Amino acid sequence: MERKQIKKALVSVYQKDKLDVIIKKLHSEGVEFISTGGTQTFIESLDIPCSAVEDLTGYPSILGGRVKTLHPKVFGGILSRRDFEKDNEQIAEYEIPEIDLVIVDLYPFEATVAAGADEPTTIEKIDIGGISLIRAAAKNYKDVVIVASQDQYQPLFEVLEAYGAQTTIEERRWFAKEAFAVSSHYDSAIFNYFDGDEKSHFRLTQNNAKPLRYGENPHQRGMFFGKFDEMFEQLQGKEISYNNLLDIDAAVNLINDFDDITFAVLKHNNACGIASRPVLVDAWNAALAGDPVSAFGGVLITNAIVDKETAEEMNKIFFEVVIAPDYDLEAIEILSQKKNRIILILKNAKLPKQQMRTLLNGVLMQDKDLHTETADDLKVVTEVSPTELEIEDLIFANKVVKHTKSNAIVLAKNKQMCASGVGQTSRVDALVHAIEKAESFNFDLKGAVMASDAFFPFPDCVQIAAEAGVTAVVQPGGSINDQKSIDTCNEKGLSMVTTGFRHFKH
Predict the structure, then answer these.
(1) How far is CA 301 from the centre of its chain?
(2) Does the N-terminal peptide bond of residue 348 adopt cis geometry, omega within 30 degrees of 0?
């Protein structure tokens, strides 16, 4: 396979970390350097000769550094096609040196935005010369190697170590592909800054590609694009799967709504058990009691530090993933006994406020459902008002139903989910399923509360709930038949509160 020699390199970077190894290696291979300002000074500090771009172009850096490399003698040297006779004639005529390697990075625009900088400061971090160099070198990958970020230093070094300052067209094309990934991500970040909350166009890029064993099913390819390590520290366990990630996402969103010590068990993105208790081990046992059958192979999450006693109880069942803010050393020793078990520490990471999914030939985007009801949001609409304990249970159940697939009904008592009806086409079916499930696990529903993710179109649900022993109901309200449900509650002695907020989750 033919290899092309690197003779001259243009280096102009914002971040100098790890650059010295690359420069020294290139120098040992006889490569000459052209550079700008601080990068030139850095190279020369390594006792390596380096020509200034200003000497090549005949122009100094002007406009406060806005214009340094934007010149035909720079871009001509990058874009000239070595196998085009006319190009060779022109670069000879205008004394333009061929540039075989470009190492460049971009001003830290995203970091500047994240730091809350004012607009003038942010605008100055929009790179012009760097992005132009990247595009030019990547376009001419047949002749030029482009290294567009520090992430490509190691791949370049591996090529240099193996073959010296020579590259194949396949290698150059790979570097070009990575360069366009850098430039497209950068441009998307700039657009989204200018677009703000308008959402006039959909532009989203994610780096950090992670191949998964497969997708939702073995015949489907799966990938995760994101910064998993920013959210979690994985203490042990097998490779995380596509379905694991879906459950982990659902678990994190659910637990974030709870301030009391809470434990939840999730299966297929829904809680099959959840409870709040003053002591963690009690929360675990109560959560498990909600559905000990479905808990098998589930995802466990808590908002408290897992201690030895809780770990011992947890270890009695098989589960795939556990998530907590931390673990006692003894707890880790216990939970680590099963080597494939995934143990995650949930960091205090910032989550996006929008969510999206592909649909038809486009993308749906919406604000996340971040509203969580409090006692102040509950409007009593019946003759009977809920007790203080019922109010606590209503708030608890409403948090759970918010994170349950629609149509959804949640039955709860003493801050413990007794059962839920999940993803039914009929709200009555969801309720009937929840009652049957609760009874199958020997829950006494007398004094339980019911939460619905949307309004009751007819009074049948409250009628059935009353017969099962439910004494208080929370729902959004808003049906033209609300009064019929309220009247039924009054007839049966139930209290009902409305919130004004629907929590569909399709």
Answers:
(1) 18
(2) no
Mention every residue, 6+ apart, whose C-beta is less than 8 A from residue 498.
Answer: 378, 379, 381, 474, 475, 476, 477, 478, 482
Measured between its terminal Cα atoms, the distance across the chain in Å is 53
Query: Are the CB atoms for 230 and 252 separated by under 8 Å?
Result: no
Query: Do β-strands 232-236 and 51-52 pair in parallel, antiparallel, or remain unpaired?
Result: unpaired
Burial of 337 (0-12, 13-18, 19+ CB in 10 A): exposed
C-alpha 57/C-alpha 13 separation (Å) is: 19
d(CA 232, CA 345): 5
Report CA-CA distances (Å) from 382 to 343, 452, 474, 487, 489. 46, 17, 11, 8, 7
Q: Please, are residues 273 and 290 in contact by the beta-carbon 8 Å criterion?
A: yes
**pLDDT tens readout for residues 162-175:** 999 999 999 999 99
Q: Report residue 347 CA to chain centroid gap.
A: 13
Is residue 259 a contact partner of residue 265, using CB atoms and an 8 Å limit? no
Does an H or E element contain 455, and which? none
Provide the CB-side half-sphere exposure for 177 (13 A, CA). 6
Contact between residue 151 and residue 92 where contact means Cβ atoms under 8 Å apart: no
Instruction: Fill in the amino acid letter for 120.
Output: P
Set out the domains of the chain in order of their start, with CATH numbers: 4-195 (3.40.50.1380), 225-346 (3.40.140.20), 378-498 (3.40.140.20)
Q: How confident is the model at residue 441 (pLDDT cuts 50, 70, 90)?
A: very high
Cα–Cα nearest to 501, from 370, 392, 351, 382 = 370
Is residue 139 part of the annotated active site? The answer reads yes
DSSP bridge pairs for 366: 355
Which stretch of DSSP H or E encloses residue 301?
Answer: strand 298-302
Interacting residues of 85 by C-beta distance below 8 A, sequence separation 6+: none
Cβ atoms 420, 287 nearer than 8 A: no
Residue 278 token pair: 């003053």
Name the catalytic one among 25, 268, 308, 492: 268
Q: Which amino acid is at 191?
A: F
CB 330 within 8 A of CB 217: no
pLDDT at residue 280 tops 80: yes
Percent of all residues in the chain with a pLDDT value above 70, rounded to a whole number: 100
Catalytic hit among 139, 238, 338, 492:
139
